[in-house]
Design a protein that fits this description.
281 residues, mainly beta, Neuraminidase, five-stranded mixed sheet, globular, signal, ATP-binding protein, 6-blade_b-propeller_TolB-like
Length: 281
């Protein structure tokens, strides 16, 4: 895998939410990821664990645009759901080593694709009839053809780049955020983009944080979430002219995985506080 280095550096920092409105949505169970569709917000929940023993199954919650929980267990009986995406009225969710799909109108399961060799499916990005799925432990990204209902390894990520977590599509590029679990005291997370046709890899930026969440707005701004060596949550923003800002959300988060940006608001799942935070500028 050839890697092209196109580094952009931390430009400044700004306060995203100094005068913002914030809604704290409680009553969830280990929220992992958030996605929006029409007037609905969907949240994947890992369920309840005590002493590493599963007490409650994972599920998907449905919220309205204001953050009210409309249906806590919209989709139930999952194992450990993480990344979610909506395509053609189907909600897709990665559940350990399986990609599952549910019709949003009927809740009927329409896909149950176990991915051989998968260890920890993490996030999903959509492009036409293809789903791209990251596997943080296996270090690969899969491409899933929804119409043909088959998949293949799209690309294996070099270990020097870290473990792939959050992913997103912008134009003809797949953006990937990574973490490095081998050196906690000197963390290094990377962001790189992959040409969907040539599979060329362009490393764009590195951070003293593990990068987990990655979201691309309609304006082409890339937003990132991660953890530094103290375990503190960090947010970053990469603008269209390649300037990197560290973002101060002005709220205390204990966790921030696969967030989303919808209708000028950040929806951030905090699995440790069992909440989703809606932050509006």
């Amino acid at each position: 895998m050839n890697i092209v280095y196109i580094f952009i550096f931390l430009f400044s920092s700004f306060l995203f939410a100094k005068d913002s409105n914030m809604v704290s949505i409680s009553g969830l169970q280990g929220p992992q990821a958030v996605v929006s569709n029409a007037n609905n917000i969907y949240v994947s929940n890992a369920g309840i664990y005590k002493n590493n023993i599963k007490k409650e199954s994972g599920f998907i919650s449905r919220l309205d645009g204001k953050g009210k929980i409309v249906e806590l267990k919209f989709i139930d009986n999952l194992d450990y759901p993480k990344g979610i995406a909506v395509l053609n009225n189907v909600l897709y969710v990665v559940d350990i080593n399986t990609l599952k799909g549910f019709n949003l109108s009927t809740k009927k399961q329409v896909l149950n694709m176990q991915i051989k060799g998968a260890n920890a499916l993490s996030d999903i990005a959509t492009s036409n009839d293809t789903l791209y799925v990251s596997d943080s432990k296996a270090g690969v990204i899969y491409a899933v053809d929804i119409k043909k209902k088959n998949y293949h390894v799209f690309i294996a990520i070099e270990s020097s780049l870290g473990q792939p977590n959050g992913i997103g599509i912008n134009g003809n590029f797949l953006y990937v955020g990574t973490s490095d679990s081998t050196r906690f005291e000197t963390l290094k997370g990377n962001v790189f983009r992959i040409d969907l046709e040539s599979k060329s890899v362009y490393l764009t930026s590195s951070y003293n944080s593990n990068i987990y969440g990655l979201e691309i707005t309609k304006q082409g701004i890339i937003m990132l979430s991660g953890y530094d060596s103290n375990g503190d949550v960090r947010f970053y923003s990469i603008t269209g002219d390649s300037k990197i800002f560290e973002v101060d959300l002005n709220i205390k988060l204990k966790s921030a995985l696969y967030f989303t940006y919808s209708n000028d608001a950040l929806w951030i799942p905090d699995s440790k506080q069992n909440r989703v935070f809606k932050v509006m500028p």
